[in-house]
Each structure stands twice: as C-alpha cells, then as structure tokens.
Design a protein that fits this description.
- The chain is an alpha/beta fold.
- The protein has a single domain, classed as TIM Barrel (Alpha-Beta Barrel), CATH 3.20.20.
- Strands 1-4-5-6-7-10-11-12 form an eight-stranded parallel beta barrel, surrounded by six helices.
- A hairpin with a 2-residue loop joins strand 2 and strand 3.
- It is globular, with a radius of gyration of 17 Å.
C-alpha cells in the first residue's frame, strides 16, 4: 500500500496566495514562495501552485514563479494555470516544476493530454477537474452531498463555465489519454471546511487506476482521515487550514499515524 500524501495548495492571484469559498470571496494568505518553503520544512509531501486567474485572464503561468519556488524546495511541486500547449509545459518544467496541471485546456483540447504524456511522461501530467453536483430535483439541498438523483458536471475557467461533460466519464478519458494523476475539486465543498466529497471520490477510485488527489472541503484532521479511508483518496490537498495556521502538518501526520493511516 502506498503512503498517503499531504499536499498544501497555493492558489495564486497577482503574485499573492489567496483563498476563498466556493471559488469566490478571495482573501490574501501571504507570499507564495515563503509559504512553499515553510510547508516543505514542516514535512509536506508535495506542493501544488495554481495561478487561478491565468486561464480566465488569458495569461501564461509565471515561469519566474516556478524558478523561485524550485530554488527553495526539496520536495516535488506541481504548477498549473494557463498551460495550454507542450511549449508552455516545457517552460514550466524546465524552470524546475516536477509536474504540470492542466484543467480548462485539457477539456477544450483533449489531445493535449496525449501530447504532454508522450513528450514528458504520464508522471508529469496532472489533470485537474473542477466539478459541481447538479441535482435532478432543484429542491434537494446541496448539503446532502449524495451522488444519487444528481450528476457531477465539469466546470471551466476557475468554475465560471459549466460544460456538458460528466465528471466520471471525463476522468476516465483523461486516464486513457495519459494523465498520471487526477486532482478533483468539488466546487460545492471548496472553502466550506465541511469535509471532502468522499462519496464521489470513492466512486472515482472505483473507475480509475491512477492516483486521485482530493481537493475542496478540508476543515479539520478528521476530514483528511475520512478522505483517505472513506474516499479512497491517494492524497489530500488543503489550503486555508494550513495558510491560516489552523492545523500544522507535523500534528496532522501524527494524528493520521495514530488513526492507522500510512503517511510519509
């Protein structure tokens, strides 16, 4: 059994780390390079840095950020946001990133997944998926978070645009095209600190053979334990609980070990 990974996520806007709720209401959380260095020192297994406005504002990911972070880190890190070609990916990987994350660009041009996997290897290609649960009956509250009487639909451009792509069909296609990992964010759970979308994650685990990173909803240590045990997630990604010092990574790993979860 592979050990579970703890991955702090830094959402970056205008060069600063930010965090919101359900993808809106952003507040400043600090300098991304300083935070990245701190998390590495605390025992994070990996880091994810996402330029959350890069796609929306038609900007390319700041290669300079990858360079600065690479100088400070001794752990793997992934960069995403605005990567829409093999050339974009090459620039970021060449600057020191270990993996690249693609989201909207993969949906608009699925062949990009194949091209990146062929050029750099599947281990470098993370397909990020933002999805929202749409209920057949609009009177049902989202707080139920069940997968019955509903479908999960993929959203693009930081959650701004709904597509007709069904979540589980899309992640299976991404795997077939060469994705090495799926980073799944439930938009309904994001920033709520109410726990991860574990039922959807477990279903995803049953249809995929590649690792799944759970994102959206971490509020306490139990939520992270639950996504490993109930959601069958391979890694847990969290932001605000680390940025605002609600949970420390050493304390979290100690708790998980006590709960019987294998962590590094």
């Amino acid at each position: 059994m592979l050990s579970k990974r703890i991955i702090p996520c830094l959402d970056i806007k205008d060069g600063r780390t930010v965090k919101g709720v359900n993808f809106v209401g952003l507040r400043d959380a600090g300098d991304p390079v300083e935070l990245a260095k701190l998390y590495a020192e605390q025992g994070a297994d990996e880091l994810v840095l996402l330029d959350i406005t890069a796609t929306h504002e038609k900007r390319k990911t700041v290669v300079e950020l990858a360079t600065k972070v690479a100088e400070q880190l001794n752990i793997p890190f992934t960069i995403g946001g605005g990567i829409s070609s093999v050339e974009d990916a090459h620039a970021v990987l060449n600057a020191g990133a270990d993996k690249i994350s693609i989201n909207s660009a993969a949906v608009k041009n699925p062949q990009l997944i194949n091209d990146l996997a062929e050029k750099f290897g599947s281990q470098c290609v993370v397909v990020a998926v933002d999805a929202k649960q749409i209920f057949n009956d609009p009177t049902i509250q989202h707080s139920t978070f069940n997968t019955q009487n509903s479908k999960w639909f993929v959203h693009l451009n930081g959650g701004r645009i709904k597509t007709d792509l069904e979540l589980f069909a899309w992640v299976q296609e991404a795997e077939q095209r060469g994705a090495g990992e799926i980073l799944f964010t439930s938009m309904d759970h994001d920033g709520t600190k109410a726990g991860f979308a574990d039922e959807a994650l477990a279903k995803m685990n049953s249809v995929l053979n590649i690792p799944i990173i759970a994102s959206g909803g971490a509020g306490n240590m139990e939520h992270i334990r639950n996504t490993f045990i109930n959601g069958k997630s391979d890694a847990a990604l969290a932001a605000s609980i680390f940025h605002f010092k609600e949970i420390s990574i050493p304390d979290l790993k100690k708790y998980l070990k006590e709960e019987g979860v294998l962590v590094r």
